[in-house]
UniProtKB/TrEMBL annotation:
Top-level lineage group: Eukaryota
Organism: Oryza brachyantha (malo sina)
Gene3D superfamilies tied to this protein: FAD/NAD(P)-binding domain (3.50.50.60)
Entries under Pfam families matching the protein: Lycopene_cycl
Classification lineage: Eukaryota, Viridiplantae, Streptophyta, Embryophyta, Tracheophyta
Name this polypeptide is given: FAD-binding domain-containing protein
Amino acid sequence: MRARALGEAGPAPSRTQMIMDKISGEEVGCAGGAYSYSALKRLDQIWSSICEAQADSKVPEVVTRVQGPLVDYDFGDGSEIFDVLVCGGTLGIFVATALSYKGLRVGIIERNIIKGREQEWNISREELMGIVEVGILSEEEIEQIISSEFNPNRCGFESKGEIWLENILNLGISPAKVVEIMKERFVSSGGAVFEGKSLSSIYVHDDLAVLNLSDGGSLPCRLVIDAMGNFSPIVQQVLLIFN
């Protein structure tokens, strides 16, 4: 009985699963926030479905072009026309904050909560200084968000030699800290946050675009920025057009 019970046990976890199961911290819903083994399997399934998709596969049409200006639109009491609406908050929060600092009326649409993950992002100091030059992060704050620093990095392929690189992706920064700073800065500069809302469709007129949300609401703007990542429904529609 013991031998049969052991024989009926499930397969042993792979090395990948064992490593990823040791990663601490909760997942967050935004882009890059899912880094557990189950999340990896979900991404693998999505990638497989993309690779196996037939040429005639139907992709939801999210963006629709409408000729002429926007007319007979009920903006409702207290509603406004945004200069820019950014779809996707984890990376979108950076460009949204920069534009808000320029005096534009900016909103962010995020299906979950705008929150950075616990696992580090890798970046170069030169790239971080670009954010400082834009004016949305100070040099003192950069030092606060840096979790690790290392040099040099070894790159190479087996039997093909090695290259040692200095100051390339050699910083580990805390997404949780930097996204929190950006979110507070964005809101304090007058930016609007629409969390827990998914994008359903976009109607692009000659003068404005209208974004329809999953909760039935709609937001008009002059410019739409897609920061929803590789699996953005807008990207999928564009790929279908070019394929």
